[in-house]
Design a protein that fits this description.
two-stranded antiparallel sheet; Four Helix Bundle (Hemerythrin (Met), subunit A); mainly alpha; 280 residues; 11 helices
């Protein structure tokens, strides 16, 4: 079997055993509080994820250098992997069961034979420990420590100029939106036009709110950008027409919903739900 074939099979094995996450394995529960000290604000650096990157780099470094026949660096990465693995195993006491030191040492020993097939086979035991932890903890860690919390954001409502919680503000946007669609459906076009002004004012205020995290101009207007401008202009045109066209009206409602509301919710809402449950 040639070296390329061996490498391909090894990489496939590594991916399979390190990331064996299936629906039945996935768990979403709040991480232990002992992990807090490895993330801001308790830590000035996200030390836990930095440890993950260190181990991943050394694990990958073994196979990169085996392929390149750079055996000196194979040995360095193998030793460093065991060193970082042991260090990581002591960081969160509640997660001690996820670590198998003998498996890490066995992998390092196999890597030092400089036989890529042996290293690939030995990676299985180590990969299972990583995969189990990822299946049970990775989503939770990312939700808690890597996604900003919407529940800490305050918004000035442009209609009443009062400061409100972000969740309450989103409720106001939803109510304003319904004022537009319900009145239009009833043929109350003047009321719908009035509600549209309120809805647009609140919706476009998100440009300022989103910029708390979305700092650059392009990203800032990702959800509240040209498509939103086009949709609002189309809605206003129909509501000011002598005889509004329902097809065009609802088309612009769909444009606003799909390119703005839905896209934002797809990216952010799941993590927001998870965080909210933990905060309660």
């Amino acid at each position: 079997m040639n070296i390329s074939r061996i490498l391909f099979l090894t990489i496939a094995l590594v991916i399979f055993v390190v990331l064996p996450v299936q629906a039945k394995d996935m768990v979403v529960k709040e991480p232990p509080k002992s992990l807090n000290k490895y993330y801001p604000p308790e830590s000035d650096q996200p030390k836990w994820i930095q440890q993950m990157h260190k181990m991943s780099t050394h694990f990958g470094g073994v196979f990169v250098n085996l392929k390149e026949k750079d055996f000196a660096n194979v040995d360095i990465h193998a030793d460093k992997l065991v060193e970082e693995y042991k260090k990581t195993s002591e960081m969160v006491p509640e997660w001690e069961e996820y670590f198998d030191i003998p498996a890490a040492e066995a992998f390092a020993a196999a890597a030092k034979t400089h036989d890529i097939a042996k290293a690939g086979k030995a990676s299985g035991g180590l990969g299972k420990t990583c995969g189990k932890c990822h299946a049970e903890q990775e989503v939770s860690v990312w939700a808690k420590y890597h996604w900003p919390s919407f529940h800490k954001i305050k918004v000035i409502d442009p209609i009443n100029e009062k400061e409100v919680e972000f969740d309450d503000y989103m409720g106001s946007i939803s109510s304003s939106f319904k004022g537009v669609t319900v009145n239009f459906g009833e043929g109350q076009y003047d009321r719908a036009a009035k509600a549209l002004k309120t809805f647009k004012s609140r919706y476009m205020e998100l440009k300022s709110t989103c910029s708390k995290c979305h700092a650059t101009q392009d990203v800032k207007r990702f959800y509240v950008g040209p498509d939103a401008d086009t949709a609002f202009a189309g809605l206003a045109k129909e509501l000011n027409a002598e005889k509004p066209n329902p097809g065009k009206f609802w088309k612009n409602v769909g444009l606003l919903g799909k390119t703005g509301c839905k896209h934002c919710h797809l990216v952010h809402r799941t993590n927001s739900f998870i965080q909210e449950m933990w905060e309660k």
